[in-house]
Write a structure and sequence with these properties.
mainly alpha
Length: 182
């Protein structure tokens, strides 16, 4: 799909000023261009904004979107493992089956069953963890709410130092997925 100025401005209601959008889209752009252009007006476009654009319905195939989601989920599970919090085996399995579904090697029923098993296992874990931590949670909720009231939600990089880096990684990995599945 080619992405035009009219699409990002009028249909998707991009938040950039009209003159900036016009500079970015003097011609229709492909998803690959949106993910890779770095010259001129594209030099200041964040990875997050690039992803926002290409993840709109109809820009990329369902297969590529699903593979990208699986890739992100696998990396999130690995970060949990690296932090010493081993994800439940059903979580790993749900991602693996979703990937196989995207590749045409699993049925929708198999994917749904794996997702259900993961949700059930994680719900049980969350309920047990909540019960164990309820006294502490009640004591800290008020303090957390007060702190949150003063935090700047617009500055994701301050709250999550790896946020921008993660978005750049997602762009790079999405490009690889697109190339491998073209």
């Amino acid at each position: 799909m080619l992405i035009t100025l009219e699409t990002v401005r009028d249909k998707w209601l991009a938040c950039y000023p009209a003159d900036r959008l016009a500079a970015l889209y003097p011609v229709a752009r492909t998803p690959i261009e949106i993910l890779t252009l770095t010259d001129g007006p594209w030099a200041e476009v964040s990875a997050q904004d690039r992803l926002w654009t290409v993840f709109h319905t109809g820009v990329l195939s369902d297969r590529i979107l699903r593979l990208s989601a699986c890739d992100s989920a696998e990396r999130a599970l690995q970060r949990e493992r690296d932090a010493g919090r081993e994800p439940h085996r059903d979580s790993w399995n749900a991602v693996a089956v979703a990937k196989q579904f995207a590749l045409g090697n699993a049925t929708a029923q198999e994917m749904n069953d794996a997702a259900y098993d993961a949700a059930t296992a994680n719900a049980a874990f969350a309920a047990n963890a909540a019960a164990a931590h309820a006294p502490h949670a009640a004591a800290t909720t008020h303090a957390d709410a007060a702190f949150s009231a003063f935090s700047d939600d617009a500055d994701a990089d301050a709250d999550y130092p790896d946020y921008a880096s993660e978005r750049r990684t997602q762009v790079d990995r999405l490009l690889t997925i697109i190339e491998e599945n073209a």
